[in-house]
Amino acid sequence: MRVLVVEDEASLADGIAECLRREAYAVDVAYDGLAALERIGARSYDVVVLDRDLPRVHGDEVHRGIVASGGRSRVLMLTATSPDAAGRLPGTLIGADDYLAKPFAPVEVTTKVRALARRGFPSPPVLFRRGVQLDPERRRAVRDGREIALSARETAVLAELLRAGGRTVATRHLLSSVWGDDAAPSGNVVRVTVMRLRRKLGDPPLIRTVSGTGYRIP
């Protein structure tokens, strides 16, 4: 799942992104409203974590741009405004899928994003290939009847390889789809993750390296 974090306080934005990446979400970051609109125009996001008080373009305008784009992005609005005594949201937040009032811990965003990701989106299908069965949502993998414990990142990489149906998945695609465009890792982190996957999946070897390109499950 791909998430866009839009927050002008760099330390907070980066902290939120790091928490989400630990859950194996692919995360991009924008530090102002104009950069956010450019990101949204270039690709689709499942969830947008959106601060209201942004420089260059206000968060409300960014939200309107998300709605106008016709995409399916869920919006978690970050705001300094809390509900009133009756629990009513201010009118400016109406239309957002959820909100979080500042101050908050980055891990609270992870909980909210996880809930939004599950709300209204169909569960990803169970994937099958070459004796491997993977349920990405439950992070449950089985090979020839043997259950395999996978980390969130290993699950995401294996899912990409299984969905490819035998085609080669480029290393750069795995970096973008599993770690996010703004993540620091190089191709080496993909190699290490694939190496762990191979060890856990066991023999006979399932994942092949396509030299200079990426990986595939033939």
Report the helical percentage: 25-40%
The biggest beta sheet reads: 5 strands, parallel
Distance between the amino and carboxyl termini: 25 Å
Encode the helix/strand succession as letters.
Answer: EHEHEHEEHEEEEHEHHEE
Task: Please identify the structural class as seen in this structure.
Answer: alpha/beta
Q: For the CA atoms, what is the radius of gyration? A: 19 Å
Number of strands: 12
Q: Count every helix, treating DSSP H or I runs of 4 or more residues as helices.
A: 7
Biggest sheet strand order reads 2-1-3-4-5
Mean pLDDT, to the nearest integer, reads 86
Spans where pLDDT lies below 50 across 5 or more residues: none
Percent strand equals 15-25%
Shape: elongated
What characteristics describe this protein?
single chain; about 220 residues; alpha/beta; five-stranded parallel sheet; four-stranded antiparallel sheet
Describe this structure in words.
- By secondary structure, this protein is an alpha/beta fold.
- It has helices spanning 10-22, 33-42, 59-68, 106-118, 152-163, 171-179, 187-201; strands at 2-6, 26-30, 47-51, 74-79, 98-101, 127-129, 132-135, 140-143, 146-148, 169-170, 208-210, 214-216.
- The strands form 3 sheets. The protein has a 5-stranded parallel sheet with strand order 2-1-3-4-5, sandwiched between helices. A 4-stranded antiparallel sheet has the order 6-7-8-9, covered by helices on one side.
- α1 (10-22) packs across α4 (106-118), α2 (33-42) runs parallel beside α3 and α5 (152-163) packs across α6 (171-179).
- The protein is elongated and about 55 Å long.
- The chain starts with a strand and ends with a strand.
- The mean pLDDT is 86.
